[in-house]
């Protein structure tokens, strides 16, 4: 099965900044994927192509400018295997971990080939390990054998099932050679020989002076000779006999690359030390790669000018200008990128700065011992914060950044707080960590039974600027950092295994527990504990099939309603102003999903929830992203990897910028932002309400946004004579019009008036809030 999609190549002098600052149109996506090092590399005459942790970075050989290819621009998937550029038809072949294939054509279109991925008759390892080209024919080395692919048509020509893993293949002297787990095999390319029949292949063995039972991982042709590895040693074929060239104890060959004037042999350390790349001359003398080029070598290529480009676990993109260089040259991205693809929590400041916690927990809610810290994104640039770049030596030497799990921004001071599952709470002011709170200087306590950890499971600010902290499995797990900077320990509660916390419109604090929910009432004053109370809602008391479900997420909507995400779907707590009242409990919502009435997201694992400016509910699940109407009964939209650029169906975190309508979506394969059509609206229409674009130029057929409206305002659009041409209801503080009248016809050129009725204030009258001009 094949499909074509348009892929746009955009090159920037300052790539990440330009890309981040570009305005998104409604319905568009943008990715924030780690671009820190290359996991594989290939080249054309003009470009170097690096795979990274979910995308391809393209480096111009001449001016070092960068461009990006990822799923938001037309690629089919995210997690990539080997890639290879075919100069004969100027096509980039991309493989993915699940054996899917994309061909990026010279015109930017993408042909997807899913035959191997979708073939249920292939049992076992279907991975693609290596690519070799002979004109427009690609030889794919796979876990089950060798496949020939016609790059022009996208059709498979033949498949040889080898019953063993094939790591690499090449052509030499009219024979096809394959490096396998059972040695190197060869077959004649004579038209009378059926290469699909593995019985016709011959093992290079005793006749070539090779030992019995050897394993081979790489094969290449260099200086008109066949080179390959034999159980970790490098050999070449000389007049029909295999001759050892190099071996070193503790190292095995990972790849051979022979695109330039030298043979590049990548060696992997078998004891978790640094690997190496040896650069062989035609006479088999060699040198090591330049200092700083190699850590965990994955592949390397030499270009036509003698520059060697390395795909390696080292940070930055590395190359040496020529094989005589002493030190490696590096290229970083001017404005950085996230340090990892995953994010356990997202938060936004009032100014729109994004903060992402990189840590998270394992599926059993234990710590991951992640040292990646957290990231911040503002002014078009990413900033990563962890022990490796901490300014304070004590911070670098401590576990303060380990397992950064939760993040919250003070709405009054804009200070940022990062809760870790190991070392307590970090405070950041003006992008600098200026305080670390733990058991020695705050009300935070060590985990009961685990004195080496101070666990923060949740963070939330109340309306007064107090920070409520879920101090996971502490003896007194509910603590508060008050707005005056002092700490307070609250009453002991029934369940100490506390995680996410939210504060509702009445000031009640809701905590996720290991087996349900806890609501805490701090009474009239945080300092007075005499009127405090708490109540535990056991997951066993949840209705129907939700009984005993794992509670994953909480959110408070615009009307103060509590929404709960569980492993069995979504619930609500709608207890009015008193969750302690008799009969208060979880309720199921009947919703229309795909035209079928069903309990809201039934049997879907809901991992996170966010509320947009129109009070719509965004549910991140392990099977995609779902958008529901304000009451949850109607499906507004559904995004997954099949119908959108979403990087993964596992959505782990969400945050919505209410001023811009941008929805930040964290997945297990990368962070994205989606431009939605809803903005937060105020109680009244703003004097500064405006229309964009305005004027509307001829030929424009996209959405016309009317911003600055009261929440859910009734909007009417008339011509200058007062004739009504369109009406709608604002999504939060924004209404969308496509420039058409009630019959679906585009309106005539001229001036149109926008009236907005304030539904939040019945006494407010209709008023002209703005005008829009359609040009002739």
Structural description of this entry:
- The structure is a single chain.
- This protein is mainly beta and 776 residues long.
- Helix content is 2%, strand content 44%.
- It is built from 3 helices and 67 strands.
- The strands form 17 sheets. Strands 1-11-10-9-8 form a 5-stranded antiparallel sheet. It has a 5-stranded antiparallel sheet with strand order 2-7-6-5-4. A 4-stranded antiparallel sheet has the order 3-60-59-58, with no helix packed on it.
- Strand 54 and strand 55 (617-621) form a beta hairpin.
- The relative contact order is 0.07.
- Residues 1-22 have low confidence and may be disordered.
User: Tell me about the biggest sheet?
Assistant: 5 strands, antiparallel
Widest sheet, order of strands: 1-11-10-9-8
Note the gap between the termini: 45 Å
Poorly predicted runs of 5 or more residues: 1-22
Count of alpha and pi helical runs: 3
Strand content: 35-45%
Overall mean pLDDT: 91
State the shape: globular
Give the helix level as a range of percent: under 10%
User: Would you count the extended β strands for me?
Assistant: 67
* Cα gyration radius (Å): 30 Å
Judged by helices, strands and strand pairing, the structural class is: mainly beta
Task: Tell me briefly what this model is.
The protein has 776 residues and is mainly beta. It is built from three helices and 67 strands. The relative contact order is 0.07.
Keywords:
single chain; 776 residues; mainly beta; five-stranded antiparallel β-sheet; 3 helices; 44% strand; disordered N terminus
């Amino acid at each position: 099965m094949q499909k074509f999609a348009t892929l746009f190549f955009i090159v920037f002098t300052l790539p990440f900044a330009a890309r981040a600052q570009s305005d998104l149109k409604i319905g568009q996506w943008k990715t924030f994927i780690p671009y820190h090092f290359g996991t594989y590399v290939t080249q054309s005459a003009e470009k170097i192509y690096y795979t990274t942790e979910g995308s391809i970075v393209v480096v111009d050989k001449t001016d070092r400018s960068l461009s990006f290819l990822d799923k938001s621009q037309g690629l089919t998937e995210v997690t990539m295997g080997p890639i290879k550029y075919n100069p004969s038809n100027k096509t980039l072949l991309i493989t993915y971990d699940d054996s899917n294939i994309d061909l990026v054509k010279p015109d930017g279109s993408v042909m997807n080939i899913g035959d191997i991925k979708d073939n249920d008759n292939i049992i076992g390892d279907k991975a693609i390990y290596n690519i070799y080209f002979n004109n427009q024919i690609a030889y794919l080395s796979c876990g089950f054998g060798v496949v020939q692919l016609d790059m022009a048509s996208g059709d498979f020509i033949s498949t040889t099932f080898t019953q063993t893993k094939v790591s690499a293949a090449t052509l030499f002297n009219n024979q096809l050679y394959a490096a396998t787990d059972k040695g190197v095999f060869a077959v004649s390319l004579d038209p009378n020989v059926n290469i699909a029949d593995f019985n016709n292949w011959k093992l290079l063995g005793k006749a070539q002076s090779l030992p019995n039972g050897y394993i081979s991982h790489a094969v290449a042709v260099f200086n008109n000779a066949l080179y390959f590895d034999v159980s970790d040693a490098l050999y070449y074929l000389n007049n029909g006999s295999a001759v050892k060239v190099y071996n070193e104890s503790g190292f095995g060959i990972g790849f051979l690359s022979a695109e330039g004037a030298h043979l590049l042999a990548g060696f992997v350390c078998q004891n978790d030390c640094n690997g190496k790349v040896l650069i062989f001359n035609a006479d088999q003398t060699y040198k090591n790669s330049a200092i700083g080029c190699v850590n965990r070598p994955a592949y390397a290529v030499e270009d036509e000018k003698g520059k060697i480009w390395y795909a390696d676990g080292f940070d930055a993109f590395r190359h040496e200008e020529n094989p005589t260089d002493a030190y490696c040259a590096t290229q970083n991205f001017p404005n950085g990128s996230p340090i990892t693809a995953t994010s356990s929590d997202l938060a936004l400041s009032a100014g729109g700065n994004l903060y992402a916690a990189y840590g998270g927990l394992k599926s059993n809610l234990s710590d991951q011992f992640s040292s990646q810290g957290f990231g911040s994104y503002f002014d078009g640039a990413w900033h990563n914060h962890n022990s490796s770049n901490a300014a304070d030596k004590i911070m670098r030497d401590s576990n303060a950044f380990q397992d950064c799990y939760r993040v919250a921004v003070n709405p009054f001071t804009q200070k940022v707080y990062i809760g870790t599952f190991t070392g307590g709470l970090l405070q950041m002011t003006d992008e600098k960590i200026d305080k670390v709170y733990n058991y020695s200087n705050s009300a935070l306590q060590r985990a009961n039974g685990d004195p080496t950890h101070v666990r923060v499971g949740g963070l939330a600010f109340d309306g007064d600027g107090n920070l409520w902290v879920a101090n996971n499995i502490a003896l007194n797990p509910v603590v508060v950092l008050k707005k005056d900077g002092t700490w307070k320990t609250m009453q002991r509660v029934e369940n100490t295994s506390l995680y996410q916390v939210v504060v509702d419109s009445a000031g009640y604090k809701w905590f996720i527990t290991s087996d349900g929910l806890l609501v805490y009432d701090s009474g009239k004053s945080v300092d007075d504990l005499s009127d405090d109370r708490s109540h535990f809602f056991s997951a066993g008391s949840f209705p129907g099939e939700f009984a005993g479900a794992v509670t994953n997420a909480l959110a408070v909507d615009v009307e103060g309603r509590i929404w709960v995400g569980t492993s069995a779907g979504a619930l609500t707590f709608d207890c009015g102003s008193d969750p302690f009242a008799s009969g208060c409990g979880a309720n199921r919502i009947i919703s229309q999903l795909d035209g079928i009435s069903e309990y809201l997201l039934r049997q879907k694992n809901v991992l996170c929830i966010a509320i947009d400016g129109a009070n719509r509910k965004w549910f991140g699940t392990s099977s995609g992203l779902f958008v529901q109407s304000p009451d949850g009964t109607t499906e507004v939209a559904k995004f997954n990897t099949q119908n959108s650029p979403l990087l993964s169906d596992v959505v782990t975190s969400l945050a919505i910028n209410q001023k811009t309508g941008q929805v930040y979506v964290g997945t297990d394969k990368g962070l994205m932002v989606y431009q939605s059509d809803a903005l937060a609206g105020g109680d009244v229409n703003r004097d500064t309400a405006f229309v964009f674009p305005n004027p509307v130029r001829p030929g424009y057929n996209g959405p016309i946004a009317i911003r600055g409206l009261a929440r859910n305002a009734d909007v009417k659009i008339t011509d200058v004579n007062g004739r009504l041409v369109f009406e709608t209801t604002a999504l939060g503080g924004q209404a969308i019009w496509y420039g058409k009248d009630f019959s679906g016809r585009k309106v005539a050129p001229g001036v149109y008036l926008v009236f907005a009725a304030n539904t939040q204030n019945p006494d407010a009258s209709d008023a002209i809030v703005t005008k829009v001009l359609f040009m002739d």
